[in-house]
Write a structure and sequence with these properties.
This protein has two domains: 2-84, no CATH class; 90-244, no CATH class. Helices cover 42% and strands 22% of the residues. It has seven helices and six strands. Strands 1, 2, 3, 4, 5 and 6 form a six-stranded mixed beta sheet that branches. Helix 1 (2-26) packs antiparallel against helix 2 (35-58).
Length: 245
């Protein structure tokens, strides 16, 4: 019985510690955090210890073999857990090969944007909108710093930032679904006139970085008021990135 208990404790602790500490060290931004150790590898390790401990209690092997088997099992569990919690690449943005099918002045979408925000404000009774937001928004729509583009997407590629210890910071480019989609984006890189964005092929890039800090509500910029990403010329560094399928 002591032999079985030793296996249960050893593998349970190994699974718990590696599953608790591993995500904190290797991927501190992950939602899973220490929950892997608490709910998965800790209990799983204890269960594996129960099974293996009972098995080695029945096998006619020496105590030295049992100790070595226990150490090896703990090592396999720890290494397997650490591999499992290694962070996956993070999407930094998307490269689009697209055709501009239509260019709109933001003013054309102002009424729909105001209706949208009026509806949201009416439903959010626990927070007040910032004072004078419509007056400030009127000024933005009257003097826009960009345009709204409707894009017929031909290809969509994700810019991936690798985060594992041996390739941290490496950039790769991967094809992702999205060809054939019609995407609407805000563009300001060529100014605020549709004359600068003629119909036809274009290559654009937009970031997907999420800022957890709360911003003005409703937003105090045109892309935010319209619910659009800001797309611009693709950085040269990303155009030369390695590609993966």
């Amino acid at each position: 019985m002591k032999l079985i208990l030793r296996w249960v404790l050893a593998l349970g602790v190994a699974g718990f510690v590696s599953g608790y500490v591993g995500p904190i060290v290797l991927d501190p931004d992950a939602n899973q955090g220490p929950l892997v150790g608490i709910f998965i590898t800790g209990p799983g390790g204890a269960l594996a210890g129960l099974v293996l401990g009972a098995l080695f209690a029945l096998l006619p092997v020496s105590d030295l073999v049992r100790r070595r088997a226990l150490v090896a099992s703990c090592a396999v569990l720890v290494l397997g857990t650490l591999w499992y919690v290694l962070p996956e690449p993070r999407v930094r943005g998307y490269l689009l090969e697209a055709n501009i099918t239509r260019c709109l002045a933001p003013r054309e979408l102002q009424t729909a944007a105001f209706d949208h925000w009026d509806e949201r404000i009416a439903h959010v009774t626990w927070a007040q909108p910032r004072a004078g937001w419509k007056t400030q928004a009127d000024a933005l729509f009257a003097r826009p710093d960009g345009v709204v583009l409707d894009l017929d997407v031909r290809s969509r590629r994700a810019v991936l930032v690798h985060r594992r210890p041996w390739d941290h910071g490496r950039i790769t480019i991967a094809d992702v679904p999205g060809a054939g989609d019609v995407t609407r984006a805000f563009a300001r890189h060529a100014g605020g006139s549709c004359a600068a964005y003629p119909p036809g092929p274009i290559r654009l890039y937009y970031e997907t970085t999420w800022d957890p800090r709360p911003g003005p509500w409703p937003p105090d910029d045109l892309p935010g008021l319209l619910g659009l990403v800001v797309a611009g010329p693709a950085p040269a560094a990303y155009l030369g990135g390695s590609s993966s399928g």
